[in-house]
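Data availability excerpt. The first of two example chains:
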Amino acid sequence: MNNLTLLAIDTSTEACSVALLHQGEKTHLDELAERTHTQRILPMVDSILAQSGIGLNQVDALVFGRGPGSFTGVRVGGGIAQGLALGADLPVIAVSNLTAMAQAAYEQQQATQVITAIDARMNEVYFSQLVAEKVRSEFGEFLQWNEIIAEQVGAPTRLLEKLGELQGEWTTVGTGWAAYEALQNLGANTTITLPSAQYMLSLAVPMWYQKQTISAVEIEPVYLRNEVTWKKLPGRV
């Protein structure tokens, strides 16, 4: 792993973050930039590479948060990732924003049972339920997240119905718990609310060794919503 260099970016929520794994060390930059992702992300990439004294062409792969998240944020992240990867001829590793927050819960709180919920607006949340297990491979031991509830979008009540009767200790992460009254009791102890690129690095390392990479032209942001409904303005068709 000390010879592996990964650059991660994420703009899928109001958070904007970049992280670098280089010579076995991780560095990261995180900002709240709800409407300025396009202005901030590339300077942040330049800054973190300069801090480590390397160029983009010395990176082994580009990692990006492929969603779910805000439509604009996910689209921006996919576009920036594609541009960087094409420009430097880099393979790409796409990481779920929901799983990245579960990884944060593990690294910060040693949580291995996590329920994620990001506010999706329109009275809906993006959510998943995940359990971690340690897996041994020829590349060493790593953490693998298994979905109990596959990531999806729905009303807060749908999430509660899917969860049913929870057994054991579950950690909640994401903005969705505080956003909706129906979820506030279950998510009262939520402290991790937004994804960060630094935890995407942890997920990407085993994916790299297992050759789970794609090319820049294969990048597909994950919105989970098939359509978005807008209210028609008076007089408009």
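And the second chain:
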Amino acid sequence: MFIPIFFLSSLLLSSSYALVQDFCVADLSAPFGPAGYSCKKPATVTVDDFVFSGLAASGNISNLIKAAVTPAFDAQFPGVNGLGISLARLDFAIGGVIPMHTHPGASEVLIVIQGSITAGFIDSANKVYFKTLNKGDVMVFPQGLLHFQVNVEKFPALAFASFSSANPGLQILDFALFGNDLPSELIEDTTFLDDAQVKKLKAILGGTG
């Protein structure tokens, strides 16, 4: 008798915390807080809040990594706010790479649209999972784990990614180490790189110290 009552109570309790409105379009004029964006007033919501055209055009791949990520997160696509979903477009020039990075707030699903991309991730036991993906192939990257994508063909590549959060977050390992003012001595001690290597990478990625 206890178990049915327990499940009934759990159901009633969970339903009391269920979504009490259809959507929560991001109010981009308000501050972004720990819980994300606050909701626009329903009277100000329009259909354009639920439409995003920014993934139609390729991103700028004339850069250091020869790749571009065009996000459709809550800051760009207010309609996904609070829904636990978002998207991004990944464009790769020849030799393009999305460096080792993590999304602290979301898992990712990648689908290759054009070309071939070698992609992979490293789990918390430091085991590596990677494979070359071709057109139509899909790969998942669990939340918070380091992962990467590299164009391995002699022509441009294109992929789209979906995320289990409206704001998945991003930390790129190379920039976390070499793109800030973390003292070189500490980087050398923690990475076993020598001073010349650290200074060279800081010069490339904009770091100081």
